């Protein structure tokens, strides 16, 4: 609490800005982590060529400013009551700006696949092994290493005009504060050393990108104050000029904080556009099946096994065949928790937007569909396929790490109790859902609260702000059904 000019006690708030690949959300929280209001705006994506996914950075900023204004109005809060701003956003992709902070091309999103050939070249053979050992990951088409290689070959003039290679949330913070920086969680997407968690000249050498070293921005801790809201940004957003803005983080790191999965051995999952399956550990462990990236504090690593194969597949099915029904109605009619419903049921490979590295599958596939099946069987297959893909990722992590406690879940899939229960049953671990429907934004807001001294660190923030509202224990009425279905799923991968 703070004192107003009249001597009255007024609550102070923290704003979390979460910039995804479709929506940008501004969410206001109390110091205790309670959500007060939310503003959101969508940002159009363009595909000027097949497999390209881009958007206008200025449109993204306008959307973010509009979301912040909407959030403050809904809350009935003036900018001076906001004690700090935190940001998170999608990682990978490319937001290139010049010396004046102006974009030098359209932003490239993490769903972009133009750099498939470059990713294969950088990740194959001895070079790929070197990259894995130095950086903790093998390049994907959306990785900065792959995109920078593609830009060097296809748009060298763009790189000549560019001064900084930024990530999504870094572009928004630049517009808020006028300051250039990134944080270690985002930086570890391609060019930091796996062990010391700093920019690595050796990584640049491995990728033959050392001549682009000048593009890498200063590294500033995720919860450190990296700038203050400028007068221009205050006028556009409704925030007060001078409000502290922390560096922020990759959205999956922020989500882990927002749902309280921050300790060594903590497993957290995101059921959204991507199937995110991640575990915090106190040392880095390299494997092509996951990315070992820097977490929110030094000496911690987030091991992420991911693919663009989660709840977005169900959203696609609903757009095409939902017939105006709402999500809970469709999920309920799919009989997700009825073992008899899986007898001779079809399978779905959830790869509409891509498969994990190393999978033989190319695109989504519905297998075993017969004339006796109906739309409910198709929806169940999609929902089940998403869960099976999460298990594939979790099993990869389980082969090298031990989990502690229940898995924490967030994202669109966490809203459905039957779907969450099926996830717990298939994984064979308890799954908990917390009180935040905006985990990334809350994590970003908590980083801001830490940055201005409201909390001493991550643990106090979680203890104060995060509450578990639902827990699902694995059920044992399935017999061998789930395991047989999962083995059949694996057999379809090729």
Describe the structure.
This protein folds into two domains: 2-247, 2-Layer Sandwich (Nucleotidyltransferase, domain 5), CATH 3.30.420; 260-430 and 473-494, Nucleotidyltransferase, domain 5 (2-Layer Sandwich), CATH 3.30.420. The protein is built from 17 helices and 22 strands. It is an alpha+beta fold. Helix 14 links the parallel strand 20 (407-411) and strand 21 (431-434). The protein is globular. It has a seven-stranded mixed sheet, sandwiched between helices.
Any chance you could write out the topology, listing elements then pairs?
Layout: E1 2-3, E2 9-10, E3 13-19, E4 23-30, E5 35-42, E6 54-55, H1 57-75, E7 82-89, E8 95-97, E9 107-108, H2 116-123, H3 125-135, H4 144-154, H5 156-161, E10 164-166, H6 168-177, H7 184-187, H8 201-206, E11 225-228, H9 231-237, E12 244-246, E13 249-250, H10 251-258, E14 267-271, E15 275-281, E16 291-294, E17 301-307, H11 312-321, H12 327-333, E18 347-349, E19 365-367, H13 375-398, E20 407-411, H14 417-427, E21 431-434, H15 439-451, H16 458-465, E22 468-472, H17 481-491
Parallel strand pairs: 3-7, 7-13, 14-20, 20-21
Antiparallel strand pairs: 1-2, 3-4, 4-5, 6-9, 8-10, 11-12, 14-15, 15-17, 16-17, 18-19, 21-22
């Amino acid at each position: 609490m703070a004192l107003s000019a009249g001597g009255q006690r007024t609550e102070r708030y923290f704003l979390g800005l979460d910039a995804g690949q479709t929506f940008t959300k501004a969410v206001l929280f109390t110091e205790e982590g309670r959500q007060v209001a939310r503003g959101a705006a969508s940002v159009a994506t363009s595909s000027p060529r097949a497999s390209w996914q881009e958007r206008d950075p200025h449109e993204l900023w306008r959307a973010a400013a509009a979301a912040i204004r909407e959030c403050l109005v809904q809350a009935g809060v003036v900018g001076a009551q906001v004690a700090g701003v935190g940001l998170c956003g999608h990682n990978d992709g490319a937001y290139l700006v010049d010396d004046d902070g102006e974009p030098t091309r359209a932003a490239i999103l993490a769903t972009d696949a133009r750099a498939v050939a470059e990713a294969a070249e950088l990740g194959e053979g001895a070079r790929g092994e070197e990259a894995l050992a130095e950086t903790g990951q093998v390049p994907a088409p959306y990785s900065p290493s792959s995109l920078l290689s593609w830009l060097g070959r296809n748009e060298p003039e763009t790189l000549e005009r560019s001064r900084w290679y930024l990530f999504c949330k870094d572009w928004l913070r630049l517009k808020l504060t006028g300051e250039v920086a990134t944080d270690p969680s985002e930086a570890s997407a391609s060019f930091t050393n796996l062990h010391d968690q700093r920019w690595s000249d050796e990584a640049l050498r491995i990728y033959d990108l050392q001549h682009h070293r000048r593009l890498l921005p200063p590294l500033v801790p995720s919860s450190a104050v990296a700038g203050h809201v400028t007068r221009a940004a205050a006028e556009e957003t409704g925030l007060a000029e001078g409000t502290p803005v922390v560096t922020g983080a990759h959205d999956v790191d922020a989500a882990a904080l927002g749902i309280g999965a921050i300790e060594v051995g903590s497993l957290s999952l995101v059921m959204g556009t991507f199937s995110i399956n991640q575990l915090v550990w106190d040392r880095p462990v390299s494997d092509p099946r996951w990315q070992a990236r820097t977490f929110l504090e030094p000496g911690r690593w987030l091991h992420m096994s991911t693919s663009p194969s989660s709840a977005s597949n169900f959203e696609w099915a609903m757009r095409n065949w939902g017939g105006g029904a709402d999500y809970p109605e469709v999920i309920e009619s799919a009989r997700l928790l009825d073992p008899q419903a899986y007898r001779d049921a079809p399978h779905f490979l959830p790869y509409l937007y891509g498969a994990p590295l190393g999978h033989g599958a190319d695109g989504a596939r519905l297998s075993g569909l017969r004339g006796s099946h109906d739309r409910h069987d198709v929806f169940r297959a999609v929902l089940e396929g998403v869960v099976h893909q999460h298990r594939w990722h979790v099993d990869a992590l389980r082969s090298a790490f031990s989990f502690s406690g229940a898995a924490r879940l967030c994202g669109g899939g966490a809203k459905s109790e039957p779907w969450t229960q099926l996830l717990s049953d298939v994984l064979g671990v308890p799954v908990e859902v917390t009180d935040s429907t905006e985990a990334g934004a809350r994590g970003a807001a908590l980083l801001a609260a830490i940055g201005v001294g409201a909390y001493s660190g991550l643990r106090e923030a979680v203890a104060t702000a995060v509450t578990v509202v639902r827990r699902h224990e694995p059920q044992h009425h399935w017999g061998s059904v789930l395991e047989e279905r999962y083995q059949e799923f694996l057999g379809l991968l090729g």
